[in-house]
Amino acid sequence: MREVLEHFPGAQRALFRRYHIGGCSSCGFSPDETLAQVCARNGNLDVAEVLAHIQSSHEQDAKILISPKALAELLQKDKSVKLVDVRSREEFEAVHIEGSVLLSQDVMQKLMASGSNTNPIVVIDHAGKNGLDAAAYFTGHGLQNVRCLRGGIDAWAQEAEPKMRRYKLG
Q1: pLDDT of 169
Q2: Whole-number Cα distances in Å, 54 to 11, 58, 120, 165
Q3: pTM of the predicted model as reported, rounded to 2 decimal places
């Protein structure tokens, strides 16, 4: 599974979404297991079918991602873009993209109340790993115009706003 996750970072999300594998301790898997072993102990799933689903999900993830430069261009053209930061309060207060909001219960309720949303929502995290989970959550709850900043705020600081302070998580 380690190799599968290296090639397809969203594989665990894909496995959980379709097969309820990997989302909790009762259905989790070890990085040392093979995909065939995971499939065998989860109802003898067809390995080729599961791998095809993982690959398809990977391609769908790629469509959700927006590069820092493309986001900068979008922000220039469309003032209705909602930037939703899913990092911790401390990270957000240390550095954030102008106009972004920190995800909170109140923000979540407003987003969900918007229905299918006509204005774009872009999820921001630190390095682009957790943002896809949040974007998938929003999409799974009916929001349609959701993107995720590829590489997170770290890539934004490198590619779109080079004077922005960068940090590493310990």
Answers
A1: 79
A2: 6, 6, 26, 35
A3: 0.78
- For residue 60, CA distances in Å to 14, 22, 151 come to 10, 19, 16
CA gap 58, 10 in Å, rounded: 6
DSSP β-bridge partners for residue 83? 122
- pLDDT confidence of residue 73: 97
- Contact between 129 and 160 (Cβ < 8 Å): no
Measured distance between the N- and C-terminal CA atoms of the chain, rounded to whole angstroms: 25
3-state DSSP assignment of residue 123: strand
Residue-wise burial string across 80-90, b where 16 or more C-beta atoms lie within 10 A, e elsewhere: ebbbbbbbeee
How many angstroms separate the CA atoms of 69 and 58, rounded? 22
Q: What is the pLDDT of residue 105?
A: 94
Query: Domains in the chain, ordered, with CATH?
Result: 2-63 (no CATH), 67-159 (3.40.250.10)
The stretches in the chain having pLDDT less than 70 are 115-116, 170
